[in-house]
Amino acid sequence: MIRVLIVDDQPLIRSGFRALLEIEDDIEVVGEAADGAEGVALARRLLPDIALVDVQMPFVDGIEATRRIAADPALSGVHVVILTNYGFDEYVFDALRAGAAGFLVKDIRPDDFLHAVRVAARGDALLAPSITRKLIDRYVTQPPRPEPGPALAGLTNREREAVALVAQGLSNDQIATRLVISPVTAKTHVNRAMTKLRARDRAQLVVFAYESGLVTPRSS
Q1: Long-range contacts of residues 165-172, Cβ cutoff 8 Å, at least 24 apart
Q2: In sequence order, which residues have a C-beta less than 8 Å from that of residue 169 and are 6 or more positions away?
Q3: pLDDT of amino acid 210
Q4: 78 dihedral zone (left: phi>0; alpha: psi -120 to 50; beta)
Q5: Which comes out higher in pLDDT, residue 44 or 56?
Q6: What is the mean pLDDT of residues 77-104?
Q7: Nearest Cα to Cα of residue 84 among 116, 108, 60
Q8: Strand partners, 31
Q9: pLDDT digits 0-9 by tens, 139-187
Q10: Average pLDDT in the chain
């Protein structure tokens, strides 16, 4: 059973998502919150698998709520999915940096929304190749941050290759095909890289790959 917490300041949005989720046999809505502070408190109490968090809320917004959840070791199993009205923008990238597993636009089709919740619950990033390209076009062309040389040095060559392919939006099966290895081995390389880089999920690997210079717009 996938346990979901909904954090949004609009009651109509919360009730709409709840109605959509609760008709599914494998999904349970365990709570609702109207702002980020309440959402973080409920996440600590309820330990959901997924926290659907609106990016713009009064008092404590979605980015700060994501940051607090990501910084709490007790909430390491909570995957934050940012909800936005505007598609990919600077708020979404800030949320990814803060620790979000991905994002959804609120006008998403119901079937796609349910699929995305299940994808996030598996620990996969909600970053399709088209979204990754927008990330490159709008943010990665900025000067990279002067880090993290030592972190890159700690990865094996295969782990670097796996992270670079994650940053291009490839799944474990696609990485396996590209590197001519088994899917299990591909997953092992990705998981080991996440552990070494202290990344919560694949979305964090995407941010790391571009900010560290492991992948550049020209190489993607």
Answers
A1: 166/125, 166/190, 166/202, 166/205, 166/206, 166/209, 167/132, 167/205, 167/206, 167/209, 167/210, 167/214, 167/215, 167/220, 168/129, 168/132, 168/215, 168/220, 169/127, 169/128, 169/129, 169/131, 169/132, 171/124
A2: 127, 128, 129, 131, 132
A3: 76
A4: beta
A5: 44
A6: 80
A7: 108
A8: 5
A9: 555 555 555 556 777 899 999 999 999 888 788 889 999 999 999 999 9
A10: 84
- Nearest by Cα to 54 from 23, 76, 32: 32
- For tokens 């990485």, name the residue: 175
CB atoms within 10 A of CB 16: 15
Dist. CA 84–CA 8, nearest whole Å:
10
Residue 50 tokens, joined? 């997924």
Q: How far apart are CA 94 and CA 178, in angstroms?
A: 30
Instruction: State whether the Cα torsion 160-161-163-164 is positive or negative.
Output: positive
What's 29's DSSP letter? E
What is the Rg, in whole angstroms, of the alpha carbon atoms belonging to the chain?
A: 17
